[in-house]
């Protein structure tokens, strides 16, 4: 029989339950919401945190009337605690796999535009095959997803594969999405199938913020065309960017999958003379082994069919 109830942390015996409650308080931003997520009484959560602080002889959280904040010591303990909780989940997964069932947790991050890849369908199929695996999904720009991998907030990411991607990130291609110019149907260039970027030199652009991968691609492409784009409209939502263009407020460079999605009408144009393709891949840290559930999910997503494939994942 395996004893998973205690761990050694800096020469102290600490219950994994205490670390679980501590992690939940931080994730959910307070004791009440953590108790709701854990399905326990709020006083029980408070008591476990007090015991953890007493056993470690440090203050982990600063409590205010509205929120809780991590102390410096809390930051250190949280990072160690999450690694230990991940190891616990991995061990449970190994044991469950040996017994014929897969359990654990998969934390996935993804950019907003996942192109021809049916992420919802893939996750639904994975959940149907492995119902005991807990799936979590968060959305964000490519740079944020790399940061989330480094901070151990996610196990896998679906994001762009730029040349500047750090070597510590393992990457495998999933699909390629063409980036197209998008204008309003009433725009002066609306009747053209392809448009050179030089024709938009004096146009206002709508785009993601300056630290996004899409914005870097726009800046680099325009620089190659001999000008710097004027971007008066910034949004963190590609759907909102599409809406702004539809109303005639500007033009945009967007993934074709976003430009052709249901919504207000826009006109799409390939970039001439050379279309802009953006490869998208599945990412994870090379130096952090994936737990069994995440490893299975990685293989499953890589095998998931794209448009034009005739068969599903043979897993």
Query: What Rg is obtained from the alpha carbons, in whole angstroms?
Result: 23 Å
CATH topology of the largest domain: D-Maltodextrin-Binding Protein, domain 2
Number of contiguous helices: 10
CATH class of the largest domain equals Alpha Beta
Order of helices and strands: EEHHHEEHEHEHEEEEHEHEHEEH
Taken from the alpha-carbon principal axes, the silhouette is: elongated
How many discrete structural domains?
3
Spatial gap, N to C terminus: 31 Å
Strand runs, count: 14
Structural class: alpha/beta
How would you characterize the largest beta sheet? 8 strands, mixed
Indicate the mean pLDDT: 85
Domain HTH lysR-type: 14-71
InterPro entries: HTH-type_LysR_regulators, LysR_HTH_N, LysR_subst-bd, WH-like_DNA-bd_sf, WH_DNA-bd_sf
Protein name: LysR substrate-binding domain-containing protein
Keywords: DNA-binding, Transcription, Transcription regulation
Can you give a write-up of this model?
This is LysR substrate-binding domain-containing protein. Keywords: DNA-binding, Transcription, Transcription regulation. The chain has helices spanning 16-28, 31-38, 42-56, 72-98, 119-129, 142-150, 213-224, 238-246, 256-259, 292-303; strands spanning 6-9, 12-15, 61-63, 68-70, 104-110, 133-139, 156-160, 169-183, 194-196, 204-207, 230-234, 252-255, 267-272, 276-285. It has 315 residues and is of the alpha/beta class. It folds into 3 domains: 6-87, Arc Repressor Mutant, subunit A (Orthogonal Bundle); 97-174 and 280-303, Periplasmic binding protein-like II (D-Maltodextrin-Binding Protein, domain 2, 3-Layer(aba) Sandwich); 176-278, D-Maltodextrin-Binding Protein, domain 2 (3-Layer(aba) Sandwich). β10, α7 (213-224) and β11 (230-234) form a beta-alpha-beta unit. The longest helix has 27 residues, at 72-98. The chain is elongated, with a radius of gyration of 23 Å. The model is unreliable at 1-12 and 308-315 (pLDDT under 50).
């Amino acid at each position: 029989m395996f004893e998973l109830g205690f761990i050694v942390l800096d020469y102290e015996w600490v219950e994994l339950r205490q670390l679980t409650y501590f992690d939940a308080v931080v994730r959910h931003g307070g004791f009440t919401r953590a108790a709701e997520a854990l399905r326990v009484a709020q006083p029980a959560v408070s008591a476990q945190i007090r015991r953890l602080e007493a056993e470690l002889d440090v203050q982990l959280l600063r409590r205010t009337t509205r929120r809780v904040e991590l102390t410096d010591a809390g930051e250190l303990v949280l990072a160690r605690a999450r690694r230990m909780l991940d190891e616990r989940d991995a061990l449970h997964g190994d044991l469950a796999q040996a017994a014929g069932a897969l359990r654990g947790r998969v934390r996935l991050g993804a950019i907003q535009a996942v192109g021809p890849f049916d992420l919802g369908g893939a996750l639904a199929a994975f959940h149907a095959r492995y119902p005991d695996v807990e799936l979590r999904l968060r959305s964000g720009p490519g740079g944020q997803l790399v940061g989330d991998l480094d901070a151990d907030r996610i196990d896998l990411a679906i994001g762009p594969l730029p040349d500047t991607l750090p070597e510590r990130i393992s990457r495998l291609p999933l699909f390629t999405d063409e980036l197209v110019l998008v204008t309003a149907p009433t725009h002066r260039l609306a009747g053209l199938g392809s448009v050179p970027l030089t024709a938009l030199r004096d146009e206002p652009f709508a785009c993601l913020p300056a630290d996004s991968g899409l914005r870097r691609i726009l800046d680099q492409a325009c620089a190659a065309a001999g000008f710097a784009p004027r971007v008066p409209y910034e949004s963190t939502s590609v759907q909102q960017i599409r809406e702004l263009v539809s109303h005639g407020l500007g033009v945009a460079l967007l993934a074709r999958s976003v430009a052709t999605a249901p919504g207000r009408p826009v006109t799409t144009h390939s970039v001439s003379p050379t279309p802009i393709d953006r490869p998208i891949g599945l990412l994870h840290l090379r130096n952090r082994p994936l737990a069994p559930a995440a490893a299975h999910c990685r293989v499953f997503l890589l095998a998931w069919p794209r448009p034009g494939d005739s068969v599903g994942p043979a897993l």
